[in-house]
Design a protein that fits this description.
Largest sheet: none
Distance between the termini: 38 Å
Helix content: over 70%
Structural class: mainly alpha
Number of domains: 1
Number of helices: 23
Oligomer: single chain
Radius of gyration: 22 Å
Length: about 425
């Protein structure tokens, strides 16, 4: 066991890609178990790790988001958000948050949100008088709404690996995502005078609001199609993802007429790259996961955790703390694949409902996307805008505290976390 752990840490420290580090650590574990005779098990565990039907939803959701983003959907959603909340002090910051909610239903990706708004909204905010580090911080804080409100790739991975209803996880993510948006908008409002945020000279008229809403209907229909189909039990997440791609292509080709073969080819390449990275991690994690199960590591950790305390709230706090700390230095998909099989037995022992445990994992890992030193959203915004990462992190601190508070509220308040899943029949 020690050799596999040592191999993993050594490879990560020396810059080995996380997927390959996981796979090689698993191989070391197999050799440590009984020599080379166990290596024959490796290939079957790799393919078994990917042979899960719901995983097919991930490339479809990614492709749908790519198509919708490249066809001008983002601009329309930003305009809608601006006419709704642009009249307040810090209106463009509020617009950034609300647009993240709209954008979440298209891509389900925090980094896609950060990249898109880093190129569009951040320059617009700077032009209107916002400090660039503050504009980046607002964008980073709002970006995690993307993988919280469905569709969420992280939820697909968790549900597929742990045998939890993906539709139930999607339902559980709606309320926390909306609350995060409201809380962050409150942080913006409270800090408006301190940050000297600009205020619009006039608000949008009802006519302008209506016209913008009508022009955005095709974009707003996307999350309705996805969520309505899944939560209504009409289609599976995989089927909904393929429908989303078909809808996005129809809009891009026949309605907006902005989609070209050249641009579509680029979208396919980007989708393949993103999917490939995720699937490499999942595939090689199959070896490591089997080895950990054989060595009873999840059970030992669960027993060790319960020896500290059998109080469910203390156990939940320990799990959240572990996820947030590890999320500072590792890719969140890899963390989920490695730690979920280890920590979920611990949640079961303290009586957590599977969907409730899942949403705790997803929220905690999403927040880690904007925590230094390796928060993916911070790196994306720093590279896109040229702003220093440490300056963004400093301005991000109030938003980070607020979002961690939201995480603990939904972690400790089970009725709030499971209200919508129970209403729709996904949880007891």
């Amino acid at each position: 066991m020690i050799w596999a752990l040592a191999a993993f840490v050594f490879l990560i420290l020396f810059g080995m890609p996380i997927g390959f580090a996981i796979g090689l650590a698993g191989v070391v574990g197999l050799i440590d178990m009984g020599g080379t005779q166990f290596l024959a098990i490796g290939p079957s565990k790799i393919f078994n790790g990917l042979n899960i039907f719901p995983f097919l939803a991930m490339p479809f959701f990614i492709l749908a988001g790519e198509v919708m983003n490249d066809t001008g959907i983002t601009d329309r959603l930003v305009k809608l958000a601006r006419v709704l909340v642009g009249r307040f002090r810090g209106g463009l910051a509020h617009t950034n948050m609300l647009a993240s909610v709209f954008f979440a239903g298209l891509t389900g990706s925090a980094t896609a949100d950060a990249a898109a708004f880093g190129r569009t909204l951040v320059p617009a905010m700077v032009k209107e008088g916002y400090k660039r580090d503050y504009a980046c911080a607002v964008t980073a804080a709002g970006s995690i709404i993307g993988p919280t409100i469905p569709p969420s790739g992280l939820m697909v991975v968790y549900g597929s690996l742990m045998g939890v209803s993906i539709a139930g996880l999607f339902a559980a993510g709606v309320l926390p995502g909306l609350v995060i948006c409201l809380v962050c908008m409150s942080v913006i409002a409270i800090g408006g005078n301190r940050e000297n945020l600009p205020k619009a000279l006039r608000g949008a008229t009802l006519r302008e609001v209506w016209q913008t809403f009508v022009s955005s209907l095709t974009a707003l229909a996307m999350p309705v199609i996805i969520l309505g189909g899944i939560l209504g039990g009409v289609v599976t997440p995989t089927e909904a993802a393929s429908i989303a791609v078909a809808y996005a292509l129809f809009i891009g080709i026949f309605v907006y007429r902005t989609l070209t073969f050249r641009s579509f080819y680029g979208m396919l390449v980007r989708t393949a790259r993103i999917t490939g990275v995720i699937f490499v991690i999942i595939a090689f994690a199959g070896i490591l996961g089997w080895w950990m199960s054989f060595e009873r590591i999840p059970q030992m950790i669960a027993e060790g955790g319960l020896s500290l305390s059998d109080n469910r709230y203390i156990v939940i706090a320990i799990i959240i703390g572990l996820l947030l700390v590890v999320g500072m230095v590792m890719d969140i998909t890899a963390i989920l694949i490695i730690l979920a099989p280890v920590l979920v037995p611990l949640t079961e022992n303290v009586g957590l409902e599977p969907i409730h445990a899942g949403i705790i994992f997803v929220l905690a890992l999403n927040i880690s996307l904007m925590t230094p030193p390796v928060g993916a959203c911070l790196f994306v915004l720093s590279s896109v805008t040229g702003e220093k990462l440490e300056r963004i992190s400093l301005k991000l601190f109030p938003f980070l505290i607020a979002e961690v508070a939201v995480l603990f509220i939904f972690a400790f308040w089970e009725d709030a976390a499971l209200w919508l899943p129970r209403l729709l029949g996904f949880a007891q």
